[in-house]
Amino acid sequence: QVQLVESGGGLVQTGGSLRLSCAASGRTFxxxxxxxxxxxxxxxxxxxxTINWSGDRTGYEDSVKGRFTISRDNTKNTVYLQMNxxxxxxxxxxxxxxxxxxxxxxxxxxxxxxxxxxxxxxxxTVSS
Length: 128
Prior knowledge:
Blueprint: E1 4-7, E2 10-13, E3 18-24, E4 33-39, E5 46-51, E6 58-60, E7 68-73, E8 78-83, E9 92-99, H1 106-109, E10 117-118, E11 122-127
């Protein structure tokens, strides 16, 4: 069983920055593919970013490219999402997710159903 706990959400003005963290349990964190997704009321959960086990391959949804950066520290069992130049449309609950198997491909790990474990989410609100 893997437990994921997100933190770092909050209220920020347009153009501001936040860094989300996701702490994972489990002895094999370094083998997990990790992802960040977000969801707003009435909409489906959507892909934001993903990172492979070693951290040398990443992928992003088009609207966040150049503004968001996903990274991981396998010594701390933690994945991060640095969010810069935030916009009101980035307002959502952000979730981290983990998959314990599989070969990393952006086309695969941009899909919600590819992930086995999910955190409880953290709210990000960007005011205009």
